[in-house]
Amino acid sequence: MVINLSDIFNTQLILLLTEATAQEIHQRFYPNIPDDVFNEIVNADPVSSNLQNDKIGVYAKWLLNLYKNNNLKLEDLYKAKEYIPIFDKMTKANKLPNKDINSYKSLPDVYKVVQPYLDNNQSISKGDEERKIKQEGAEKVYEDNRFLVIHVKTKEAAIFYGKGTEWCTAATKSENYFDYYNSQGSLYIVMDKKNNRKYQFHFEKNQYMDETDSPIDFGEHKELLPILGKLLPDDKMEASGGGVIKLNKKFGVLDKNGNWIVKPKYYFIGNLENDGNRIVQISENEYNLIDKNGNLVLDDGYYFIRTLENDGNRIVLITDNEYNLINKNGELVLEYNYYRISQLENDGYRIVQNDKYSLLDKNGILLLEPEFDWINDLENDGYRIAALNGKNGLMKIVDEKINWMLKPELDWIGELGNNGTRQIKLNGKWGLIDKNLNWIPNK
């Protein structure tokens, strides 16, 4: 006789899950799910679970595993409360081809098999459509021979036009999330009159969903791209005529006609900058630049690339803790890498090396040895605050030499005020100096 250890283990695991209390199951198998979320998920199973009786059934465990694997949004739990009783009933009636709930990877998968048993009347009469469009709750923003696009402005309109879908914005039997989405941006419902299908677009949350509340496959539904382009919000549009858009966790650039300027293949895409390039993230540790046509600019990527500085250079991360500058041609500007680089508002760059600060001029020339505790930006009076050996002073740099206007002897010194004075602290006492660095007597 051959003993199958895997079968024994699975049998014991099933017995453990069956006999364990809700608290034990929570602690052993879902310790990273907060108590309130755990209870909310279990309560979404009205068939096999009952927390008051310390019972967690097969459907609740299925939901918990979906959530654990990032395949369940809490806002969709109302769907589970609707689907699970129907699924259970149709399973017992032998109506479903697959009765194993654990083989379904998402709520939309379950919806597809229980949909025939739901009250699912998706038709909208022409009279109702025209009546709703004229009301304040809905606005027709586009229509052609195939598509009708409605901007829904009220929960009632979202429910009306979302009838027959699984969108939380159209929910009537549980909490409706229209107000949540609408507060962040316009919600559009796209109706395909030819195929009697519905889609929902929300640009601010990067959600473009089909009737089952699953992300739209725009590779399969290319006919929707021109609609997507027409609806791009003005604040997403650039002078180039394109707008950055996120689809299925990848970013691309789409024009108003629905043509891809840059296909959605990057983990991040920045806005088009003054040099005609934009930052893109290719992988976890690789950034590059692309031009306005989507072509890669740099032969080799960097760990990180910052936005364009005022002088036309960019700060780039070479390794985990080494920065440099690249010019508009992608060439390294500085002879050495530095631990940290930041551009100053009025002149040059501040760098850090071995935990000490120094300055580079606009051409990347090192002006001072890295020996300062801190160096501030150049102010309107021509001075800058600097700290050396724990004390503060004011200095000017002339011909690459330091001229201390106030020696670094102060406990603290403030930035230049609107009235031309600075607050200072010396030996624990506070005072003011004027623009000529003279003490202002206390009145």
Q: Any low-confidence stretches, pLDDT <50, length ≥5?
A: 1-17, 120-125
The number of distinct helices, counting runs of at least 4 residues, comes to: 10
Shape: elongated
- Sequence of strands across the biggest β-sheet: 1-2-3-4-5
Through-space gap between termini: 103 Å
Helical fraction: 10-25%
Strand elements, count? 25
The tally of domains stands at 5
The percent range for strand residues is 25-35%
Largest sheet: 5 strands, antiparallel
The radius of gyration is: 31 Å
Summing up helix and strand content along with how strands pair, one would put the structural category as alpha+beta
For the residues shown, what is the average pLDDT? 87
Notes on the protein architecture:
The protein is built from 10 helices and 25 strands. The chain is elongated. The strands form 7 sheets. It has a 5-stranded antiparallel beta sheet. A 4-stranded antiparallel beta sheet has the order 18-19-20-21, with no helix packed on it. The protein has 5 domains: 14-117, no CATH class; 126-231, no CATH class; 237-301, no CATH class; 308-363, Thrombin, subunit H (Beta Barrel); 372-443. It has 443 residues and is of the alpha+beta class. Helix 5 (77-92) packs across helix 6. The model is unreliable at 1-17 and 120-125 (pLDDT under 50). It starts with a helix and ends with a strand.
Primary descriptors:
single chain; 443 residues; alpha+beta; 5 domains; five-stranded antiparallel β-sheet; four-stranded antiparallel β-sheet; 10 helices; 25 strands; 21% helix; 29% strand; disordered N terminus
